[in-house]
Write a structure and sequence with these properties.
Radius of gyration: 16 Å
CATH superfamily: Hotdog Thioesterase
Number of domains: 1
Number of helices: 3
Largest sheet: 7 strands, antiparallel
Structural class: alpha+beta
Length: about 160
């Protein structure tokens, strides 16, 4: 799969470019993503959304590989605490989709995100996701360095929210 993100654009040395609001990645629907009818299987959308969240975090300088490398004492993980999904229209085999992700809010130990999957100008799916920060099986506060990066992309009004 070819993954194109707004984070892949060229960046001046030493400068970090914040993601567009919202962060967008393009992906194609493959046979493996579909059910017997050629429609995207409902669980495949979860993978698409996860890719969108991962690329969003990468674009603001939060990489899973670094987090997992520190997964021992003092380490943490992101886990989906809650997710609400509205399936509006089906995606089909060979469609090119756009996954949009933005942060709507931050709590002490959680991140509120909104996501949307589009085919061209059609909205196929919307999702509200609450991500918890966990260490040793228990919720913990967002580490300061992560919180500082996330705080830069939280909307002060509704400029980052999806349509």
């Amino acid at each position: 799969m070819t993954l194109r993100t707004s984070a892949n654009r060229s960046k001046p040395p030493g400068k970090r470019v914040l993601p567009d609001a919202p962060q967008r990645i393009a992906l194609r629907v493959y046979y493996e993503d579909t059910d017997f009818s050629g429609n995207v299987y409902h669980a495949s959308y979860l993978r698409f959304l996860e890719r969108g969240r991962t690329e969003f975090l990468r674009a603001i300088g939060i990489e899973h590989s670094r987090i997992f490398a520190n997964g021992g004492a003092g380490g943490f993980h992101f886990v989906v605490r809650a997710m609400g999904i509205e399936f509006l229209k089906p995606a089909l085999m060979d469609d090119t989709l756009l996954v949009e992700t933005c942060v709507n809010g931050l709590g002490g130990a959680s991140i509120e995100m909104r996501q949307q999957i589009n085919r061209g100008h059609e909205i196929l799916l919307t999702a509200k996701v609450r991500i918890a920060i966990v260490s040793g099986g228990r919720a913990r506060r967002i580490p300061a360095e992560v919180f500082e990066k996330l705080k830069l992309v939280v909307p002060t009004t509704h400029e980052n929210t999806l349509s």
